[in-house]
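Quick illustration, no need to memorize.
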Amino acid sequence: MSTRRGFMMKRIYQVLTCDHFSENWADIPTASIDVRPWEHGGFLPPSEAKVAFDGRVFHVLFKAWEKNIRVVTHQSNGPVWEDSCVEFFFNPAPALDSRYLNFEINAEGVLLLGLGAGRDNRKLLDFDPKTFGIKAEVPYHGSAEWNRPSFTVSCIIPVSFLETIYGSLDFQIGTVLAGNFQKCGDKTANPHFGCWNPIEIESPDFHRPEWFGTIVIA
């Protein structure tokens, strides 16, 4: 992938279909969150995402090699992007609906979830955290004592939940989705913005669906 502004190619991520997914992530393809759209060589902790699909649920895993993590937000739909945060902006039906979901999760597993077609007029969604089965390696209210070199966060996105928003969905081999994986920490000791698919604009803004990458069920 070229890194010259104006010549970046959109990436493609293949979501591996596993009939009985058992959280064995070793064989699941990796999406590297290694693009610095606005920092030009500045700090970005190495980070990656993986997604698997079992026909009923999308399984999502993030790993970030970030030291000195920050978690201040402990309320759902709070400003988790200011903390050590991983994100999945996801449109499961881009051919039918311009709205996408923004899953933003800090290192302790606190989720912000919104819906809309862009940054403006987004709606924060009420949700039961149990719906998304969030698992965070960092204990709740335990970030101050966390001294490991990395952390992981995982969640699930049930098809039944997506259908309450988008209507009936038929995910088959070859179905094309859209989205981006991101890593940020606006108020961490080393503020940073990173993404999987390039975003070619001048000012930091992850809410740019025109720069989403292609996600294909394989």
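The chain is about 5% helix and 35% strand.
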